Amino acid sequence: MAATATGARIVGPGDGVEGFLGSIGVRFMIDGPDAAERFSLVEHPMSPRALAAPLHLHTREDEYSFVLEGRMGALLGEDVVEAGPGDLVFKPRNQWHTFWNAGDEPCRILEIIAPAGFERFFRELDGLGGAIKADPDELAALNERYGLEMKPETVPELLERFGLQIGLPLSGGWTP
Length: 176
Fold this sequence. Notes:
Blueprint: E1 18-20, E2 25-30, E3 40-46, E4 50-51, E5 55-58, E6 62-69, E7 72-76, E8 79-83, E9 88-91, E10 97-101, E11 107-114, H1 118-127, H2 136-145, E12 148-151, H3 155-162, E13 165-166
Parallel strand pairs: 4-13
Antiparallel strand pairs: 1-2, 2-3, 3-11, 5-12, 6-9, 6-11, 7-8, 7-10
């Protein structure tokens, strides 16, 4: 795939295609080709107390979560952190992690993915109906294609340990 970049533009609160990943939403804001594959940007709206994903590890990209609204909790290796509006959480590649809405109100984060490419995983996962509805073999193949290691068996323990639930769809488009 050729690395190209598009010109300057504004992405407003109502712009970008939205999807649902099974427990959190996704709004596509800047795809890899828009930034010459250097990074991509998505918004993750999370309903109250929603677990985003099982414990997982990225082998190809780093993730940076900037909290716009609410409280984001994260398990980064063995460390549990909580971040609020204006905080940035760095999730480096090759580190087991997960994250969630740590509050009783909606939470929205901007997820910067560098280098780009993993935003395509989100598109494909949405196309499978999200992680909860996806065929396990198709989900395993998707994980393999994107260099993602996942431990789905951690979900029950994460839900109990942090008082979480499987989230409900919540639209993106944060506004102050």
